[in-house]
Amino acid sequence: MFDTLLIANRGEIACRVAATARRMGLRTVAVYSDADANARHVAACDQAVYIGGSEPRASYLRADAILQAAIDTGAGAIHPGYGFLSENEAFAEAAEKAGIAFVGPPASAIAAMGSKSAAKTLMEKAGVPLVPGYHGDNQDPQFLKTQADGIGYPVLIKASAGGGGKGMRVVESSGAFLDALASCQREAASSFGDDRVLIERYLQKPRHIEIQVFADTHGNCVYLFERDCSVQRRHQKVIEEAPAPGMTEERRRAMGEAAVAAARAVGYVGAGTVEFIAEPDGRFYFMEMNTRLQVEHPVTEMITGHDLVEWQLRVAAGQPLPARQEDLRINGHAIEARIYAENPEKGFLPSIGTLAYLGLPPHTAFANADIRVDGGVRTGDTITPFYDPMIAKLIVHGADRDQARARMLQALAQTQAVGVQTNVAFLSRLMQDSAFAAADLDTGLIERQRATLLPEPQAASAATLALASAAVLVRQGLAQPGAQTAAKGPSDPWDARDGWRLGNQYQRHLQWVDNGETRRVTVARQGGAWTLDAGSGPQPFLWRSHASANPNLAYGLRVTLAGHEYAGTVVLHADRAHVFGEGGVHVLELYDPLAHAQDTQGEHGGGLTAPMPGKIISISVKAGDTVEKGQPLLVMEAMKMEHTISAPANGRVEEVFYGVGDQVTEGAELVSIGE
Q1: For residues 523 and 534, what is the distance between their CA atoms, to the nearest angstrom?
Q2: What is the pLDDT of residue 217?
Q3: How deeply is 670 buried, as exposed, middle or buried, from its count of CB atoms within 10 A (0-12, 13-18, 19+)?
Q4: Which pLDDT score, from 0 to 100, does residue 236 have?
Q5: Is 20 helix (H, G, I), strand (E, B) or coil?
């Protein structure tokens, strides 16, 4: 076994490989770009080597720089992860020539499966079932159209060198074929530098089922059962699970043996995935083989109990497979959800930004348990436009599918991210979807269930407004109703933070902007009784806070409103309250009336008024001064924050009514401005 492993990747998969390598006693080397100088995968390894700029082609796609880093650090092996150079036969060949083990198949196997057309020809010779279609070299548009007409519509045009849904079109009729072909070829040329395509019959309500295979250099090859990856958006996987719901032992064996035949046909070594498309009647057809570790490999680890990265490293070191086919068993059910920084409501477009807060359920990292998280980012890290926007993979295990689905729902409810848009709420709805729950799966499920999976935004409930308002009160140090000080000895009444006011009355107005609508909330105290009015009249109100992972940003809360108790976590960040509860998140913006005071000047006859109590801490004008619209006039301190009052229009200051240090009440006129 080699003693040093270079991981030629980044993010979650680099951290995943490092975790197993560390457990095996191997020294690890990371590579990183400008954007990843402080990334989690760099910290996870024993050594790190800088390889270039943020763009992948300037760093993670630089085979020469990565190979040199391996040589310089004395690495005996290179693990390519997935993506980037993982399926680049030239890189695999260069590593082997340099005397460094490539943790993957031989270059010849990568080349054989790299072209979808060539791979299908090989599979046909090996007796692996194929979807009716054309996979040849003749790329003349009229010839391809004739082939499509013969196959029968609808047909699927696919880039021969493609992946990830690029260069792919469904064509419903002969008349639409040539335009779709031209579009597909342009996209394929742009994405892969190769405009060749293949044509297949488009299957109705197909399922995407893949088989995990493993082979060693001693002639052994096994399959570690199947994964169902049918739930997709834009031809990209969203949910993966194992075993596939409804799979019979007979079909499992048939698909597994077909996958092993496919691997043997190309002299495969290491971990690989043979992807099939299956029809409702049980017929299945070869799609492609991914000559690398898959993103969704943890669900296979969960149901078999084997560490596939460890298998990869042992095979790369020349050792035989750790298990035979008859030794492998399925235990329970596993589901993986990919947590992405993306906006499902806007076509799943990636969301970039800094993760101001990341909360996860209790879990193990990169190791099997009821709840497992494989992640590559932390709070404070930035999701950049340069790489895949994955935040983490959430993997759960249950005795059966129903338990796994329930456990996933519970875990998603505890997955909280602020700073970027995420798909967490969408995934929660998907777990509860009737079709998904009934395992009525196919690649069109998301589009078919769009109305329920991507509903119109709903107004915040009174409970949500109460949680957000309670978080503001806690942040400002207001004691919980009925809370007693823990200090010993005589108490100082001036230290009380329970909202006491002369006359034993307290009232606080909060304005929340909810999907463009202003929602007014009034929190009041009369004697020892608290109420909250969210628009339907005062209701008895109590709140309790408890410790959170980031007490200056996130607040774990329980509120009681009108006798009903609600729990949630509220993250206050950049004038917004992110209320996590009921399996989703609702974002409310705290409206700052001081900052918007000039918006209502027409109502005050030229006078700027204080919209809430505060203290004047700075004045920058005097009577007689000429001011321009937007010019700062004075600064108030309220809610432990400074707020600048600006001129609403051009004019002349007629009078300034207060001085620095003065306390002002809500509605007090501050400055009078004339034309």
Answers
A1: 9
A2: 97
A3: buried
A4: 85
A5: helix
22 is catalytic: no
Instruction: Please state, in angstroms and rounded to a whole number, the distance separating the CA atoms of residues 362 and 604.
Output: 54
Q: Please check whether residue 288 is in contact with residue 116, taking contact to mean a CB–CB distance below 8 angstroms.
A: yes
For residue 194, the one-letter residue type is D
Q: What is the reported pLDDT for 14?
A: 98
- Round the average pLDDT of the chain to a whole number and report it: 90
- List of residues 6+ apart from 650 with CB closer than 8 A: 626, 627, 628, 629
Given this model, what pLDDT does residue 666 score?
A: 62
Q: Is 649 exposed, middle or buried (0-12, 13-18, 19+ CB in 10 A)?
A: middle
Phi then psi for residue 533, to 5 deg, are -115, 110
Closest CA to 252 of 227, 235, 220: 227
- For residue 220, give every residue at least 6 positions away whose Cβ sits within 8 Å of its Cβ, in sequence order, or none: 320, 321, 324
Half-sphere exposure of 45 (CA within 13 A, CB side): 31
554 in Cβ contact with 548 (< 8 Å): yes
> What's the pTM value of the predicted model, to 2 decimals?
0.80
CA 107 to chain centre: 33
Phi, psi at residue 263, to the nearest 5°? -65, -45
| Nearest 10 degrees: Cα torsion 42, 47, 53, 56 | -70
386-417 burial: b if 16+ Cβ within 10 Å, else e: bbbbbbbbbbbbbeebeebbebbbebbbbbbb
Residue with tokens 């996130």: 554
Give the pair of three-digit tokens for residue 551. 């007490």
* Size (the chain), residues: 675
Residue 54 contacts residue 35 (beta carbons within 8 Å): yes
Q: How many other CB atoms are there within 10 angstroms of residue 668's CB atom?
A: 17
Identify the segments of the chain with pLDDT beneath 70: 163-165, 479, 482-504, 549, 592-607, 611-613, 638-643, 666
Contacts of 272 (CB under 8 A, 6+ apart): 105, 212, 213, 214, 215, 263, 289, 290, 291, 292
The pLDDT of residue 163: 65
Q: What's the one-letter identity of residue 169? A: R
DSSP labels, 28-81: EEEEEEGGGTT-HHHHHSSEEEEEE-SSGGGTTT-HHHHHHHHHHTT-SEEE--
Question: What stretches of 376-499 show up as alpha helix (H) in DSSP?
Answer: 401-413, 424-432, 434-437, 445-448, 450-453, 462-475
pLDDT in tens, 1-14: 999 999 999 999 99
Catalytic residue among 292, 338, 475, 508: 292
Distance of CA 258 to the CA centre of its chain: 34
Residue 609: Cβ within 10 Å count: 19
3 state SS for 353-404: EECCEEECCCCEECCCCCEEEEECCCCCCEECCCCCCEEEEEEEEECCHHHH
> Over the stretch 134-156, which tens digit does the pLDDT of each residue have?
988 899 999 999 999 999 999 99
459: Cβ contacts below 8 Å, ≥ 6 apart: 514, 515, 517, 519
Distance CA 472, CA 108 (A): 62
Query: pLDDT tens digit string along 177-232?
Result: 999 999 889 888 877 788 999 998 888 888 999 999 999 999 999 999 999 999 99
